[in-house]
Design goal:
heterodimer, A: about 240 residues, Glutaconate Coenzyme A-transferase, 7-stranded parallel beta sheet, 3-stranded antiparallel beta sheet, B: alpha/beta, 9-stranded mixed beta sheet, 5 helices
Chain lengths: ~240, ~210
């Protein structure tokens, strides 16, 4: 079975429809599916609900789909880096559901694992718990959170083999794994597709069963906060851990 | 503004918070003053810093020209890896947080109440950016230490009988380190652990709305 597509446009052809729920990988601008976002922009699909930890920045990442008014609702934990987001949200054009970051990740993981709901301590006694089922286990109170099953997952890996086994690089793995797992269809874009058999089977981060369509392409990989240390102060031998 | 704040400055607060760390611990440091704690880890104490975007073993900032867009901390800053570094996905990251494997989180706050309630993510009517991983951290880690200024810019106490802002977590804070001293959350209120340099007990009490025992 061939999972490879020549472009993100081709990989998303027949998959997109107005009003759908999309799970997107990435943390900030790290490990975001740039090519799929560009293809959705071109396709003009509207009224989207997108589950993604963040919503890009102005003019980049998911911020592009905000500028084009294609997003109706975001399910996110942090959206602070985006002025257009705030404008649309405050004017009532955009709906926002805040999820604690770990709850969002687990909702995706659970949805992909066939678990429709789970109990967590996160958010007990806060606005997040309002209207949710509470249950005590062993003397502690938990709230029920629902698994997410998305119509489409768009994720970004480092390398994939032709079978769809994916390897991520450093902290660019983040939400890509849980997002991929919760998609009924998962479109994965990578920097390089290698022949099946050339990745170590013991070192696969996302097995090919979760990946339906593959694209190889160039990524801008923008850095949000460029922080560096000077070579001079390092000669003191003092640790400058962040 | 700084002239009005008595006692410890940002760096002294961070240094005091670093004294909370124990050898072998896995720790999550929040953004702001908590990030500075890493500069004051005592000699002989080895802690592994967790970044909730999927990393254990955070290294220093990279040298200029060596920034890697695939390697950032939870504040989205470029960082480096260490020999003991491990990477994982966000679900795994919060499994170790929720599962109590992280010994301590040190984080900032807008308000703390005498029962350990914490508010640090939302001011109604103001721009709301989101809670990120803060709610998961305070609900899941072994011990929560708050580092913050004792009073607001307007001189109002941030250590309260009960929080006025929407909560991040209910009864989650164990210890509060401010510019004026160190307080523990105990049954019935707060207990003074330590006074900052040049701060009297009366001054600490006067700046605190919460019940201080003893």
């Amino acid at each position: 079975m061939n999972k490879q597509y020549d472009s993100a446009d081709a990989a998303l052809d027949g998959v997109l429809r107005d009003g759908m729920l999309i799970a997107a990988g990435g943390f900030g601008l790290c490990g975001i599916p740039e090519l799929a976002i560009e293809a959705i922009l071109k396709a003009g699909t509207r009224e989207l609900t997108i589950a993604s930890n963040n919503c890009g920045v102005d003019g980049f990442g998911l911020g592009k789909l905000l500028d084009s008014r294609q997003i109706r609702k975001m399910i996110s934990s942090y959206v602070g880096e985006n002025a257009e987001f705030m404008r649309q949200y405050l004017s009532g054009e955009l709906e926002l559901e805040f999820n604690p970051q770990g709850t969002l990740a687990e909702r995706m993981r659970a949805g992909g694992a066939g678990i429709p709901g789970f109990y967590t301590k996160t958010g007990v006694g806060t606005v997040i718990a309002e209207g949710k089922e509470h249950h005590d286990f062993d003397g502690e109170t938990y709230i029920l959170e629902r698994g997410i099953v998305a119509d489409l997952a768009i994720v970004k890996g480092w390398k994939a083999d032709e079978s769809g086994n994916v390897v991520f690089r450093k902290t660019a793995r983040n939400f890509n794994v849980p997002a991929a797992k919760c998609g009924r269809v998962c479109v994965c874009e990578v920097e390089e597709i290698v022949p099946t058999g050339s990745l170590d089977p013991d070192a696969i981060h996302l097995p090919g069963i979760y990946v339906h369509r593959l694209i190889q392409g160039q990524h801008e990989k923008r850095i949000e906060q460029r922080t560096t240390r000077s070579r001079v102060s390092d000669t003191t031998g003092k640790k400058e851990t962040v | 503004m700084a002239a009005e704040i008595k006692g410890w400055d940002r760096n002294r607060m961070a240094a005091r918070a670093a004294q909370e760390l124990q050898d072998g611990w896995y720790v999550n440091l929040g953004i702001g003053i908590p990030t500075l704690v890493a500069n004051y880890i005592p000699e002989g104490v080895h802690v592994t810093l967790q970044s909730e975007n999927g990393m254990l073993g955070i290294g220093p900032f990279p040298y200029e020209g060596e920034e890697d867009p695939d390697l950032i901390n939870a504040g989205k800053q470029t960082v480096t890896e260490l020999p003991q570094t491990a990477y994982f996905d966000s679900a795994e990251s919060f499994a170790m947080i929720r599962g109590g494997k992280i010994a301590m989180a040190i984080l900032g706050a807008m308000e703390v109440a005498e029962n350990g309630d914490l508010a640090n993510w939302m001011i109604p009517g103001k721009l709301v950016k989101g809670m990120g991983g803060a709610m998961d951290l305070v609900a899941g880690v072994g011990r929560v230490v708050v580092v913050m200024d004792h009073t607001s810019k307007h001189g109002e106490s941030k250590v309260l009988k009960s929080c006025t802002l929407p909560l991040t977590g209910q009864a989650v804070v164990n210890r509060i380190i401010t510019n004026l001293g160190v307080l523990d959350v105990v049954p019935g209120g707060l207990k003074i652990v330590e006074l900052a340099d040049g701060v009297s007990e009366d001054e600490l009490r006067a700046a605190t709305e919460a019940t201080i025992l003893g």
